[in-house]
From TrEMBL, chains A, B:
PROSITE patterns: HTH_TETR_2 (PS50977). It comes from the Bacteria. This is Transcriptional regulator, TetR family. Residues 31-50 bind DNA. The lineage of its organism: Bacteria, Pseudomonadati, Pseudomonadota, Alphaproteobacteria, Hyphomicrobiales. Pfam families: TetR_C_6 (PF13977), TetR_N (PF00440). Residues 8-68 form the HTH tetR-type domain. Keywords: DNA-binding, Repressor, Transcription, Transcription regulation. One of its GO terms (molecular function) is DNA binding.
Length: 218, 218
DNA sequence: TTATAAATAAACCATTTGGTCAATTTACGA
DNA sequence: TCGTAAATTGACCAAATGGTTTATTTATAA
């Protein structure tokens, strides 16, 4: 049993360690030795499971993305109406698991590397594509196509900006403040309605419940 | 005349070279040797005018900020009404001098460094404070205080997000697309009006004229 | 023209980087 | 119990990093 198994386990361990290091020390401060230290292993062994530093960091970022993705899927499964789907996507990005200073640091580090490291570009592309495809459906059912496209872009931009700020502010950015901003952005094309308000409340609630569940499990 | 003068000249030269290097190679790829090469000088001499790499890069970013700041001042001087002032601020951030892939790269690099390098934090703080103070005045004269504060935050966030995307997209992000997004954000609290439309058109025009002027000069 | 101080750069240094390799430990199958 | 293949690591390497020191050029003031 210990043949292929241990390989997968180690790869996951080291990817997670790399991600933690990325959060703490940024791209600059994330060296192989530091990741190895974080994982409690030798540098040589880390490099035994990943051919290069770039491969390791790519894995780290895919890992982080997978976490976010899983959360999105769960929330979206609970969403029944278009409005609920929209808020599911937004709440995913504001969830206490993700919307944190250290997590934002890691992502900004990724962004800084994108222009120079091709494998990072692919990851970014995937992330954007997923967010867009999750938003565009429900938006189309509430708006004419052109406005739906515009709102999808504007919301994505806003989420990016919020994460950036979350990473930069010393004290981070409160979840509530971020939520208010996104709601304001929605107002641009979508008037307040009872449907919307109810969907918002429900998805916030679902997100809260999910957060408390994963807290208990850890 | 060549006493204190040359010192100032060299410092400016090297800061500009550092900024150029930052745009091309990111924070990771910006080493003292590379900056020296870009400046056509020796590494030792660069370090003669800046005590450390960190000091050099801080100067580079202050230099970049000064460029943006100068443009903002010129545009704001032309702005007479609240709406014109708002669009002056926004157009500054979309100006062809600034809203470019390589420039965005440099700023993202700065952002990635902020959590770990204290002098970068100060620069970021200054930039945010200036933008906010430029926006909050005209917004207050069009909106109740609470909404003005919110819109100031939302606009800042949107600009951040747009720059991020501009830096990440292979092909960059077109000025027009970015402008559409910002206009949509404005719609959230401020209805379309003749005043607004006129102000928008005028500031776009002023910005265009400015750009063509600085093109001729170079 | 010469003395002097600033500007510049070549050589050097300690440290760290990503990465290799050969040796050793571990653990499972027969 | 033993042999073998995988897991793990310490030692090592060349390259690059930020930074220092020392020597040399340059230019100015007297």
């Amino acid at each position: 049993m210990g043949r292929r198994n241990i390989s997968q386990i180690r790869r996951a361990e080291y990817a997670a360690a790399a991600y933690r290091t990325l959060m703490k020390h940024g791209l600059q401060g994330t060296s192989l030795s530091r990741v190895a230290e974080e994982a409690g292993a030798s540098k040589a062994n880390v490099l035994h499971y990943y051919q290069s530093k770039e491969a390791l960091l790519s894995a780290a970022l895919r890992y982080a993305n997978a976490v976010l993705c899983k959360e999105a899927i769960i929330l979206l499964r609970e969403a029944k109406t278009p409005w609920e789907r929209i808020y599911a996507v937004l709440e995913t990005n504001l969830s206490p698991t993700s919307f944190r200073t250290d997590v934002a640091h890691a992502w900004i580090s990724l962004c800084a590397g994108v222009p120079h490291i091709t494998s990072y570009q692919r990851i970014q592309t995937v992330i954007y594509a997923r967010m867009r495809s999750n938003l565009i459906g429900p938006l189309r059912s509430l708006l004419p196509e052109q406005d739906a496209n515009l709102m999808s872009d504007v919301l994505t931009t806003a989420v990016d900006g919020l994460w950036l700020r979350c990473g930069l502010s010393l004290d981070g950015l409160s979840q509530d403040a971020a939520r208010d901003q996104l709601d304001a952005v929605l107002d641009a094309r979508l008037p307040a309605s009872e449907d919307r308000q109810r969907a918002r409340d429900r998805m916030i609630d679902v997100s809260r419940i999910m957060a408390s569940m994963s807290n208990n499990r850890s």
